[in-house]
C-alpha cells in the first residue's frame, strides 16, 4: 500500500487476509439488526464489505452501530473472516467503529433506491449520485476514452498544446459567444481553438491536438448541447485533402474504442454495454447522397439545408438497418451550408462544394472538420463574404501572409462521443457538473 493510503479497499481483500486485522473505510449503505447479530454494509470506492456485529462478542459496538445514519462515513478496524453467507466471501468482525462524518437524514437523493430520481435532482446532488457504481462507471470510461485518444495521437507524433480560453474574437458565429469583462476590454470565452490551431500550422508544430473546454451559449435545450463541453481539436499540416483528416479521426475512434474495451471491462459490464470493433474504413456518404437517402425514406430536406437532428437520426437508422454501420462520414457539404465557416477550403473544381465532413455515430454528429483555406487572398475574400471585420482577425490572418502550409483538422465532441458509446439518453450524463442555459450550479 502506498504511504498515503490508510484504508484497505474491498477489492484488495483476499483469502490471504483471513484472520488478520484490517482497517476499511467507506459509507454506511445499509444496516440490519436481527437481535443478537447485526450487519453493516459498508460501501467503498470498489465494492461493498459486510461488517458483522455479534452482541455477545462486543455489546458496545453492537449498540453504537445501531444508531449510525445511512451514508455516514465510517472507519472500521477488525478481523477478516471467511464467510459463506457474505456476498464477497468474507466479513469483518469489528473491534472499533469510528464515525468520521455522520450523514444528515433524510438524504436529498437515495443512493440504493430502486426508483430512479429525475436527472435534475441527481445533478443537484451529484456527489450522492456518484455514489452509485453505474454512474461512476461513466466517468471512469470517459477518463479511459481520453487516455486512449491521447495515446493514439501521441503515438502518431501529435503534440498536445493549450490555447487561450479567453479570446478577443469568436470563430463559430456570434450567436453562441459568451461575452466577459476582461480588465477594461470586452472579451469572450473560447467557442473553439480554431484560430489558434490554424495559427500553429504556420509554426512548425505541424501536428497538434488540444483537449480542453469549449464554451457555447446554446439557447435551445437539447440532449446533445451543453454550454461547456470538452473539445478534442486536431490540426495537421501538409495534407493533400480532407481524406487525410478523416483518416486521423477514424484512427482516434478505432483505437480509443479498443482502449476502453480493454481497460473498462468491469465498467462496461456494470452498464451492460458491448463495444464492438467498428467496420473500417468508415463509409463516406456524400451530402447529396444523404439527402437522397433521407428523401426515399420520407424526409425531404432542401438541397443546401442542414440535415438537422431528425435527418441525422434517420440517416443513422438507415445506415444501421441497411448496412449494420454505426460510424460513417458525411462528406462534401455544400459551400452554402458551411458559409458561416469562413475558413473551409472549397473544392478547386466546384466551388459550390467544400471538402468538409462530419463524422456521425449512430445518428449523431460527433466530429466536424475538413481542409482549411490556407491561401491568404482566398481566405480574406471568404471572410469578407461572411461579413467579418478583417481587422479584428489580424492575428489570425497575419500567419497566412508569412508561409502557411496546406492544413486541416477537426473539432471532436468528447461528451457526445461518450454519450453514443454508452448509449446514454442525455449528454449531461457524461459531464460531472454540466452547464446549460438553466444550470450554473453545482
Ligand atoms: P451542432 O450542429 O450539432 O450544434 P456544430 O456544428 O455547432 O454542432 P462544431 O462547431 O462543428 O459543432 O463543433 C465540433 C463538434 O463539437 C461537434 O461535432 C460536437 O461533437 C461538439 N459540439 C459542438 N457544440 C457542442 C455543444 N454545445 N455541446 C456538446 N458538444 C458540442
Could you state the CATH homologous superfamily of the largest domain?
Bira Bifunctional Protein, Domain 2
* CATH hierarchy class name of the largest domain: Alpha Beta
CATH topology of the largest domain: BirA Bifunctional Protein, domain 2
Apparent shape: elongated
Strand order of the largest sheet: 6-10-11-16-15-14-13-12
Bound molecule types:
adenosine-5'-triphosphate
Determine the fraction of residues in helical runs and give it as a percent range.
25-40%
By helix and strand content, what is the structural category?
alpha+beta
Q: What about the largest sheet?
A: 8 strands, mixed
Please indicate the percent range of residues in DSSP E strands (runs of 2 or more).
Answer: 15-25%
Can you offer a commentary on this structure?
The protein is α+β, with helices and mostly antiparallel strands and 442 residues long. The protein folds into 2 domains: 10-101, Beta Barrel (OB fold (Dihydrolipoamide Acetyltransferase, E2P)), CATH 2.40.50.140; 133-430, Bira Bifunctional Protein, Domain 2 (BirA Bifunctional Protein, domain 2), CATH 3.30.930. It is built from 12 helices and 16 strands. Adenosine-5'-triphosphate binds at residues 172, 216, 218, 225-226, 229, 231, 365-368, 411, 413, 415-416, 427. Adenosine-5'-triphosphate (ATP) binds at residues 172, 216, 218, 225-226, 229, 231, 365-368, 411, 413, 415-416, 427.
Amino acid at each position: 500500500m502506498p504511504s498515503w493510503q490508510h484504508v484497505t479497499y474491498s477489492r484488495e481483500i483476499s483469502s490471504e487476509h483471513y484472520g488478520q486485522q484490517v482497517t476499511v473505510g467507506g459509507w454506511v449503505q445499509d444496516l440490519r439488526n436481527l437481535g443478537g447479530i447485526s450487519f453493516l454494509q459498508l460501501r467503498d470506492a470498489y465494492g461493498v464489505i459486510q461488517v458483522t456485529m455479534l452482541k455477545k462478542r462486543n455489546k458496545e459496538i453492537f449498540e453504537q452501530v445501531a444508531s449510525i445514519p445511512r451514508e455516514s462515513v465510517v472507519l472500521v478496524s477488525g478481523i477478516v473472516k471467511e464467510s459463506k453467507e457474505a456476498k464477497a466471501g468474507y466479513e469483518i468482525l469489528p473491534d472499533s467503529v469510528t464515525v468520521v462524518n455522520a450523514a444528515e437524514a433524510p438524504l436529498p437523493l437515495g443512493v440504493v433506491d430502486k426508483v430512479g430520481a429525475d436527472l435534475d435532482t441527481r445533478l443537484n446532488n451529484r456527489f450522492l449520485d456518484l455514489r452509485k457504481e453505474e454512474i461512476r462507471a461513466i466517468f471512469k470510461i470517459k477518463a479511459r476514452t481520453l487516455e486512449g485518444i491521447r495515446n493514439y495521437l501521441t503515438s502518431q507524433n501529435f503534440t498536445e498544446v493549450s490555447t487561450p480560453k479567453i479570446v478577443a474574437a469568436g470563430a463559430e458565429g456570434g450567436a453562441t459567444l459568451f461575452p466577459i469583462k476582461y480588465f477594461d476590454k470586452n472579451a469572450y470565452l473560447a467557442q473553439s481553438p480554431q484560430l489558434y490551431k490554424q495559427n500553429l500550422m504556420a509554426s512548425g508544430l505541424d501536428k497538434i491536438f488540444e483537449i480542453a473546454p469549449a464554451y457555447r451559449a446554446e439557447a435551445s435545450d437539447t440532449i446533445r448541447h451543453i454550454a461547456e463541453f470538452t473539445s478534442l481539436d486536431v490540426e495537421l499540416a501538409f495534407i493533400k485533402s480532407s481524406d487525410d483528416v478523416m483518416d486521423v479521426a477514424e484512427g482516434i475512434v478505432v483505437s480509443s474504442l479498443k482502449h476502453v474495451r480493454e481497460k473498462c471491462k468491469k465498467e462496461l459490464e456494470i452498464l451492460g454495454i458491448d463495444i464492438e470493433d467498428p467496420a473500417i474504413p468508415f463509409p463516406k456518404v456524400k451530402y447529396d447522397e444523404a439527402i437522397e437517402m433521407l428523401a426515399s425514406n420520407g424526409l425531404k430536406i432542401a438541397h443546401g439545408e442542414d440535415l438537422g437532428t431528425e435527418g441525422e437520426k434517420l440517416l443513422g437508422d438507415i445506415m444501421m438497418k441497411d448496412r449494420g454501420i454505426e460510424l460513417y462520414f458525411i462528406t462534401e457539404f455544400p459551400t452554402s451550408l458551411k458559409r458561416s465557416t469562413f475558413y473551409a477550403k472549397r473544392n478547386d473544381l466546384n466551388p459550390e462544394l467544400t471538402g468538409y465532413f462530419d463524422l456521425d455515430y449512430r445518428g449523431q454528429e460527433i466530429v466536424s472538420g475538413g481542409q482549411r483555406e490556407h491561401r491568404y487572398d482566398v481566405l480574406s475574400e471568404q471572410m469578407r463574404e461572411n461579413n467579418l471585420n478583417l481587422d479584428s482577425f489580424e492575428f489570425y490572418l497575419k500567419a497566412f501572409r508569412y508561409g502557411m502550409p496546406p492544413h486541416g483538422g477537426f473539432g471532436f465532441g468528447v461528451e457526445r462521443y461518450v454519450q453514443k458509446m454508452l448509449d446514454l439518453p442525455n449528454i449531461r450524463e457524461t459531464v460531472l457538473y454540466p452547464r446549460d442555459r438553466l444550470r450554473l450550479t453545482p
